[in-house]
Structures are given as structure tokens and as C-alpha cells.
Amino acid sequence: MFRRMYVTISGLLIMSTGLLLVLLGIVVYHELQSDLVRDGELAMENSVPAVEAALARSAYREGEGPPVRDSLGNSIYYYAVGSSAEIAHSPHAPVPFEVIHGVAVLRKFATFAYNGEPYRLYTLTVPDPDALPSDVVETAYNPLASPSKTTVVLYMYSLITQERSMLHHTLRLMEVVGGAGFLLAVAGDLVLARRLVQPAFRTWSAYNESVLELSHELQTPIATANAMLASRGVDPHTAADIRRELERASKMVSDILYLSKLRSGVADQPTEPVAVSDITNELADRFTAVAAGVGIAVSGAADEGLFVETTAGEWERLISTLFKNVIDHAARPSTASWSLYGEGRRIVFLVENAVGSRVDGDRRQAPERGVGLKIVERLAQRMRGVARIETTTSRFLVEINVPALRPH
What we know:
phosphorelay sensor kinase activity; elongated; single chain; EC 2.7.13.3; ATP-binding; His_kinase_dom; 13 strands; six-stranded antiparallel β-sheet; membrane
């Protein structure tokens, strides 16, 4: 139980720490990316006057002269389309005009890739410094926007490999640092989860010790009473009644101790596939004979080849507790029925009996709801199943539903 609690708490702490680190990393990376993009776009906008100055000089328009650079040191390449649909370009044009024209959006920034390299493009209209010569370049393409006689459409683009490389390097660094931080946080979360579970563990241990001590203490007066009955002059009928109640009390103390161990996980043992059909049939034969001696006719059948992930001892305890319930609390004489069958991927054990009557003739109201059935419910939960109990004025029904296993 506490192992599951520790795993749950530590898992929640680790998951929340991981999500926090991931969200923090996403925010930091997004802000860095936004800052780099904003700086690059601002530097390109500030380079517009330099490109306009280059267009005013025929040497630049004809692809000669030094390239234009922005404030970040990036080379600015450009194409300019005038009213005569002729194209002027920068001294170096690494990307063909048809590629540029295909991704351009007037007065907007755009990014694209060419030959595996990333570029940023900015398209705008600027005043025509003078009429572009008709012999600058070959045939022009349809411009993005039709320029007037006094303006040209300017396509400015630059290589942003350095910006992308910085982002990639930053991402790798964040992954390394974040991974190391996450491992440290996991270690801290495990220690914190252990410290959080300790108070509950100490309280539960104290409770179990108290139950154990109480069980042993209660067994002492029960044993003493049995000894007194043997040594005192008590009539046989009264002595038999007292011994029956003492045995019942002793069994109840043992059940309380076993239930406490089940709840604490002390009684947990490694599970394995158990052939429950054979065990159930064997127990049913034994209890049927005992029930017949007190006037209860028990009948039922079990399907063959049913397996459950449990231990043989736990399945025997579950079935024998339910059969003993029938013998102790069913009406006499009466009938009781049981069945064990497969239902898809589940196995169902069903037992039903008539409700016994009190001496005064009043119907018992669910007399079986005691420690024994709580043990049954706990064992069913340990088998990853459920126990369902239904009571009417005349019948009492218990259904155990657990996952089925295929035989290996």
C-alpha cells in the first residue's frame, strides 16, 4: 500500500517537475526565437535606404560593386522591378528571381529555403531613383504588384543560417542543461516523496502494532475462559454454547488480524496463474458435506480450465470464507447455490443462500456483513477484481468478478 502511495506521490512530483521544465524551456526558446527574428527583420528594414542608394547607382544595378550589408553584418541581396517590367539585382543573387517572386508578400516578411539554406525575404515598394535602363537584365517576370512609373517593387532577402544555427545550438544546450536539471529534480522529488510518506507509514505501523497487540491480548481471556469451563462445574449444554461463542470470538480476532495484514500489505505474496476450478470444486465438496449436516443443501458447478493471477492460499481463503458464511448464517433448513464460470475475459464466482431467521422470527438484516466479507472484498481487490453483495429479505448473494488468465 505504502509502496503504491510512494510511487504515486513521486510520480506526480516528477511529472509536474518535468512539465514545468518543458514549459519553461518552451517559453525561453520562443522568446529567444522571437527576439532573433525581430532583430533580423528590424536590421533588414533599416537597410532599405542603403539598397535605395545602391539602386541609384548604375554599377550596382548592373550587378557590380560591393554587396549591401545590414547592421548585423548580413549580406542583403535584392531584386528591383520597375515600371518597364525589367529587373535589376544586387551584385550577387544566390536565389533565382522566380523563387523569390513565388514566396513574396508585399510589405510582409517571409522565410523560405533554397538549396538547403534558409532565407528571410522582405518585399516593399520604393521610389524609383531614376528610370531603370532597358538593358540591365533579360526578360522580366510578372511583378508581385504592378509598379507605377515612379516606384519599383523591391525584393530584399538575406541568408539566416547564423540565426538558425544559434537557435539550434541553444536548443541543444537547453536539452542538455534541462536533462541534467531534471535528473537532479527527480532525485529531490524521490527524497521529498519519501519524507511525505513517512508520517502516514509511521501512523499505519502504530495501528498495525496496536491491532496485533490487541489480538494477542484478546486471545488470553478466551483461552482462560475455555480452561475455566473445563475445571468448573458447568452443565454440558451451557458449556457447549459458551465454547461455541468463544470459538467464534477467537476466529473473529484471527480474521481482524488477517484483515489488518491484508490492508497493510504484510500478507502480500508473489502471485502466479492459479487453476481456480480445481480448488473451488475441492472446497465445495468439503463444505457441501458440512452444510448437509446442519440442514443446508448446497449445489453448484465450476467450469473447467479457469485461471486467475493470485496465490492458491488467497483463493482458498476467499472461497472457504464465502462457503463458511453460508453455513454460519443461512436459514435451516434451506438451499444454497454457487457457480464459477468464465465471462469473456473475466471469471465470476457467485454464491447465494437463504437468509436465516432470529429466534424471535425476525429476518436477519445482512448478518454476513462482518470481518469475513471485508476479507473477501480485500482479496478480490488484490486480484484486481470486485466483490458485489446484494441482500433482500429472503436471499443473500455475493458475486466475485476478477480478470481471467489463459493457462501457460
